[in-house]
From TrEMBL:
Protein name stated in the entry: Cinnamoyl- reductase 1
Single GO term (MF): oxidoreductase activity, acting on the CH-OH group of donors, NAD or NADP as acceptor
Pfam families reported for this sequence: Epimerase
Residues in coiled coil: none
Region forming the signal peptide: none
Superkingdom: Eukaryota
InterPro entries cross-referenced by the UniProt entry: Epimerase_deHydtase, NAD(P)-bd_dom_sf, NAD(P)_dehydrat-like
Residues covered by the NAD-dependent epimerase/dehydratase domain: 96-333
Keyword Oxidoreductase in annotation: yes
PANTHER family to which the protein is assigned, alphabetical: CINNAMOYL-COA REDUCTASE-LIKE PROTEIN (PTHR10366:SF369), NAD DEPENDENT EPIMERASE/DEHYDRATASE (PTHR10366)
Record carries keyword tRNA-binding: no
Assigned keywords, A-Z: NADP, Oxidoreductase
Length: 411
């Protein structure tokens, strides 16, 4: 795997050091016993903070960041969230936040980040729902280095609380629905676009160093006006008008969210980098299935949908998580990063599933299911150049089907 050697090898442990806050003050705060805040509300702490921030006028972000740390600590006890607690004093790994940490890709990313020595703030929609938390709490290292936060993309304060104290953010949370939706604005567009702006605003306010934004090939296709003889790449953008006409709202949500992210980054001078994964499949960690794993499950059950406006190639979930870490850790990584094992049609994918698993009644689909899409190997050149060795389609399918079987989704 690409983690061995190359640019992802050896994550060096780094002290938590929020920008603009003197290190000794952060350490002081982190080492403080939790009893020190018992019974105190964040507002009753404000005079103390005001006094302290007045003492250090040299550090303009001090007030906000100090306040956030205290608010975060209080929220741990209130919500009963898992946290490093007294072990906080001992933690040495760099802290990063993963929004949508309970999701399909998010779970893999949290797991790999923990393995690499990071302290992870992962967001879930409902802390009381075991289906969102248990699989994360079971990870090795979770006890000491995973902190779960309840977050709603449209609730700015909940985002600030999750990001406070971190130096990097991986923004994955976004509704992922390829089936028809009744209310595109509320089900897809608002959480994707406003949610992204909320996350970036909080990251900027808290002095986060780099944000990795999870976009999608759905911000690249459908793009019917792209030149027919040129392989699609990071220069290509989804056609917004086409999406509106055809009522394909998920690609529109990802396109507008990514465009809003680039605009924000340029205007506010925030360092962001984008990953654009294809259809993500492979082993499943959460107890429920996400939209892309549902696609292969339905295919195995005989579904004939060809996902004309949604497919551009497949990618292993572990490679997607690795791609996120690669672009975060490599300061030379800039811009968008197409993340597919190859550009292919859904018809190619379905034919390979049928070849590998003849025991299922896989429908025969036309070969060219994505009109005009030129096939290409090594299409994700930017990630390959950063050291990612993509797992081929055959293995993606084997891992996905094996996982569906072992979790009881198919027999
Ligand atoms: N899977 C793919 O093939 C694929 C391909 C390209 C890009 N992506 C992108 O990758 C990211 C993760 O997708 P995934 O496949 O891992 O899907 P997923 O399992 O559905 O994960 C999405 C995550 O976002 C959270 N979320 C959704 N709406 C939210 C809201 N309003 N407030 C707070 N959290 C919210 C979800 O929480 P709940 O689980 O509680 O709803 C979930 O944890 C998304 O941005 C998606 O667009 C996915």
């Amino acid at each position: 795997m690409a983690l061995q050697g190359g640019p992802l090898a050896e994550h060096s442990h780094r002290m938590i050091k929020a920008k603009s806050v003197p290190n000794f003050l952060l350490r002081l705060e982190i080492n403080r016993p939790k009893e020190a805040y018992a019974g105190m509300s964040s507002s009753s702490l404000s005079p103390v903070i005001l006094f302290l921030s007045a003492c250090v006028p040299k550090y303009p972000n001090f007030f906000v960041q100090f306040h956030m740390i205290i608010k975060t600590e209080i929220s741990f006890w209130r919500t009963g969230a898992k946290f490093c607690g007294s072990e906080m004093a001992k933690r040495e790994g760099e802290a990063v936040c993963v929004t949508g940490g309970s999701g399909y890709i998010g779970s893999w990313l949290v797991r790999l980040l923990l393995e690499r020595g990071y302290t992870v703030h992962a967001t879930v929609k409902d802390l009381k729902d075991e289906k969102e938390t248990k699989h994360l709490e079971d990870f090795e290292g979770a006890k000491s280095c995973l902190v779960l936060f309840q977050m709603d993309l449209l609730n700015y304060d909940s985002i600030v609380t999750a990001i406070a104290g971190t130096t990097g953010v991986f923004h994955l949370a976004s509704p992922c629905i390829v089936d028809e939706v009744r209310d595109p604005e509320n089900e897809l567009l608002a959480p994707a676009i406003k949610g992204t702006i909320n996350v970036l605003t909080a990251a900027k306010e808290l002095g986060v160093r780099r944000v990795v934004v999870t976009s999608s090939i759905s911000a690249i296709v459908p793009s019917p006006n792209w030149p027919a003889d040129v392989v699609k790449n990071e220069e290509c953008w989804t056609d917004e008008e086409y999406c509106k006409q055809k009522g394909v709202w998920y690609p529109l949500s990802k396109t507008l969210a990514e465009k809003a992210a680039w605009e924000f980054a340029k205007e506010k001078k925030l360092d962001i980098v984008v990953v654009n994964p294809g259809t993500v499949m492979g082993p499943v960690i959460p107890p429920t299935l996400n939209a892309s794993m549902l696609m292969i499950l339905r295919l195995l059950q005989g579904c004939t949908d060809v996902y004309e406006n949604f497919f551009m190639g497949s990618v292993h979930v572990k490679d997607v998580a690795l791609a996120h870490i690669l672009v975060y850790e490599n300061k030379s990584a800039t811009g968008r990063h197409l993340c597919v094992e190859a550009i292919s049609h859904y018809g190619d994918f379905a034919a390979k599933v049928a070849e590998l698993f003849p025991e299922y009644k896989i429908p025969r689909l036309p070969k060219d299911t994505q009109p005009g899409l030129l096939r290409a190997k090594d299409a994700s050149k930017k990630l390959i150049d950063l050291g990612l060795e993509f797992i081929p389609m055959e293995q993606i399918i084997r891992d996905a089907v094996q996982s569906l079987k072992s979790k009881g989704f198919i027999s």
